Amino acid sequence: MMPFLVNFSLFTGSILIYLYPKLPQTNQIDFIEWLIVLGGVLRRSPRKEFINMPSVGLGLVGCGNFSGSLAAAVLNCRRARLVTCYDTDPEKQRRFSETFACAHEPSYEDLLQRTDVDGVLLVSPNAEHAAQAVLAARYGKHVFVEKPIANTIAEGEKMIAACDAAGVTLMVGHLRRRSGGIRKAREMIDQGAIGEPVLVEANVSSDSGFNLTPDKFRWCGDDSGCPGGALMTSGIHHVDTFNYLLGPIKSVSAYFKKLFISADVEDVNLTVFEFESGVLGYLGATYASPYDNWLYIHGTRAGLMWLVPRPIPDTVKFPHNKDQYTRLMLLEKNKPPKDIPFSGGDPVLEEIDEFARCIQSGERPETDGQVALGILAFIRAAAQAARSGQKVQLAG
Hints:
The chain has 396 residues and is of the alpha/beta class. It folds into three domains: 1-45; 49-174 and 349-366, 3-Layer(aba) Sandwich (Rossmann fold), CATH 3.40.50; 176-346 and 376-393, Dihydrodipicolinate Reductase, domain 2. The chain contains eleven helices and 15 strands. It has helices at 2-19, 25-43, 67-75, 90-99, 108-112, 129-138, 153-166, 180-190, 230-246, 347-361, 369-388, and strands at residues 56-61, 80-86, 103-104, 119-122, 142-146, 170-173, 197-205, 249-257, 268-275, 280-286, 292-299, 302-307, 327-332, 338-339, 392-393. A hairpin with a 4-residue loop joins strand 9 (268-275) and strand 10 (280-286). Helix 2 (25-43) runs parallel beside helix 3, helix 7 runs antiparallel to helix 11 and helix 9 packs across helix 11.
């Protein structure tokens, strides 16, 4: 099989080089996704260590923007297979089913009734997570839910309780910590490469707020949509990274503003916070400015910066989720910035592989319900602080 795969890679590479520039820009991404899917199918040829371990059957719910990234990861995961999908929009569901060569279902409950589905991937609107996860647990299905775990703490706790009672895995898709550069940053901080951490600052911005329309769940900033706007949608990735790198956060102050976009949701968030260790930090997130994504940790001896450098090719979706488009730099006193090499990988594939492994082995995922609940608590505390003008303490 291996010689065939090598020859096939050379063949498809030649096709890509020849055809890609000739395609209209709107078709270039579709063409790349087709090659990813085909490559994933071929890569699932059995290796010796997987022969006696049945793969995990997964059903995906919510065939929107990020679902393609998760589906491509499943196709490239030797522990899992994509069985079926469901979306309330029949046309989205049909396109997804055809693109990723899986079945599709007339209802969510029909998906859950399939005996070849071991777990679900919930990529649905935030407000639907709790009801869908609880129902999946009742059917004995393991649950992977794209971040956030839910819009409210009560909903998140309900999901955790239901999955615990059913004895099924609950994993939440907080994937920034899985980036090769972030893993390397954690290692360097633990080894004392920057001295003692003093301050952390970060920003994640995009102008995607101008594209929001009333049919999108992020149009509303209340608990029926996406409370916290850009902080809940994008800034949440950095919040998990803060906890992963520097430990728990104990208090939050914040400003939320609606300045430029039409949607009924805040498009600018500024959050200032204190870790239990005493380290301070701030996080900016916007829906109304060009893409930017970086994190800087100041230490007593040096600084460490993770970022997505610009320019970013127009054909690249979610560059922050692809290690080859990220960079890690060490900034030492009186020295030029130093690029730090790290082991690149695929954070989305890593989390899908871990979810499948947890289903097979019963082990607990790195980003389980309790971890995700702590991240949601930060978002909710920031929203409360912005409304009240007062600092909010996070429960210990």
